[in-house]
Specification:
single chain; alpha+beta; five-stranded mixed beta sheet; 14 helices
């Protein structure tokens, strides 16, 4: 086996025995672990009371082993409870399961005459590990139970102890039955855990799809108006907190109405999709290009001042010109009228920068189209030129 294959196998085993617990399941499994531990404490208390009663009625009965088992389970339960409280659910589940397995395993070797009764308790670590830890851990404890139980039976037979029915046939039936039941319990526990994981994964995918639909323009695949405003709010808060610049471009496609009127909306939709791809190709990963309606777009430019925003506007215009050059010469020329607004120290809300970008875009449109105007140009414009 090559090193890469060996590493891959080891990694798969590690993920199976140390599975990741989804955040949605963490609280549930933590609560389940705590409940199991509290039940364990209750059982230990009843066990201790029963031993006291038994020792008072029959002083000759030895209870040392029982007391040792109670003490071991109590200590491990307290440690597991502490781990669960600290959020180490997986470690707590392993500790609960292993302590239960260890006590049962010791019992099979020390009290062989009660094999059938003790063997039933091997199901506890199998079920507990599946419920709290998940993954393939139930099979780990199931195989360990089979090996331990078989070894104990063989050891008892070598010592001349007739542990199960007094014949080889009954012993074989007992071992086969115990093995099948242990594996069946592990399979059921693992299947339930896997089904829960798949359900959560499916819910995650559906939630992601719904979130994407809620933030995406269905025609162009760009961010929609809602997503733009959410990012604007976030960027506005960040800019106020850290005094960092950002700009907003308002874009209107000149000549698009003529294309729609002459060639129809289906062709116009294709032009919008192509234009969106062309503009998105020249933007940074941190920039946000959104379609806000019809042939209007907006671009959020974090960490960008007016000079940088004008440079981006020129890149967008060149990108659209290059895209238009691939189309039929009979089509009206596609150009952009762009308005640029920048966050200001006196801005109280995103509406302030939105208003400046919108007015600058209107000024660019009314000044002859295919132009870029910034909020600085608004001061020089006459009242008639402004909307």
């Amino acid at each position: 086996m090559r090193q890469t294959e060996r590493d891959s196998l080891i990694d798969r085993i590690r993920r199976s025995l140390l599975p990741r617990i989804e955040p949605e399941l963490r609280a549930t499994r933590t609560s389940l672990a705590r409940s199991i531990i509290l039940v364990q404490f209750g059982v230990l208390a009843l066990w201790g009371i029963a031993l006291l009663v038994l020792s008072s009625l029959r002083p000759d009965v030895r209870v040392v082993l029982d007391l040792a088992a109670i003490a071991a389970l109590a200590v491990s339960g307290a440690a597991a409870l502490s781990l669960a409280k600290r959020g180490s659910v997986r470690a707590a589940g392993y500790l609960i399961s292993f302590s239960a397995f260890a006590v049962v395993a010791v019992g099979t070797f020390l009290i062989p005459q009660y094999f059938p009764l003790i063997a039933v308790a091997f199901l506890l670590p199998v079920l507990i590990s599946g419920a709290v830890v998940g993954g393939w851990t139930p099979f780990l404890f199931a195989f360990a139970a089979i090996v331990t139980n078989t070894t104990a039976v063989i050891t008892a037979a070598d010592r001349g102890v007739a542990a199960v029915g007094g014949s080889e046939t009954w012993t074989l039936i007992y071992l086969v039955t115990h093995s099948l039941v242990s594996l069946a319990a592990a399979l059921i526990s693992n299947s339930l855990s896997e089904q829960i994981q798949k359900t959560i994964g499916s819910l995650h995918r559906q939630a992601d799809q719904l979130a994407k639909l809620a933030h995406t323009d269905p025609l162009t695949g760009l961010a929609n108006r809602r997503h733009l405003f959410e990012r604007l709010e976030s960027e506005f808060s960040r800019a106020q907190r850290y005094r960092r610049p950002f700009c907003l471009l308002y874009i209107d496609m000149d000549g698009f109405k003529a294309i729609n009127d002459q060639f129809g909306h289906l062709f116009g939709d294709e032009i919008l999709r192509g234009s969106a791809r062309a503009m998105a190709a020249v933007l940074r990963a941190t920039d946000l290009l959104a379609r806000i309606g019809g042939d209007e777009f907006a671009v959020l430019l974090p960490e960008t001042d007016l000079v940088g925003a004008e440079h981006v506007a020129n890149k967008l215009r060149k990108a659209l010109t290059a895209y238009g050059g691939q189309l039929s010469p009979s089509l009206p020329t596609l150009t952009l009228s762009i308005g640029v607004g920048q966050i200001g120290e006196d801005d109280d809300a995103i509406e302030d920068i939105l208003s400046r970008a919108d007015k600058a875009q209107y000024l660019a449109k009314s000044s002859g189209k295919a132009l870029t105007r910034t909020q600085q140009d608004l001061r020089a414009a006459t009242p008639i030129e402004q909307p």
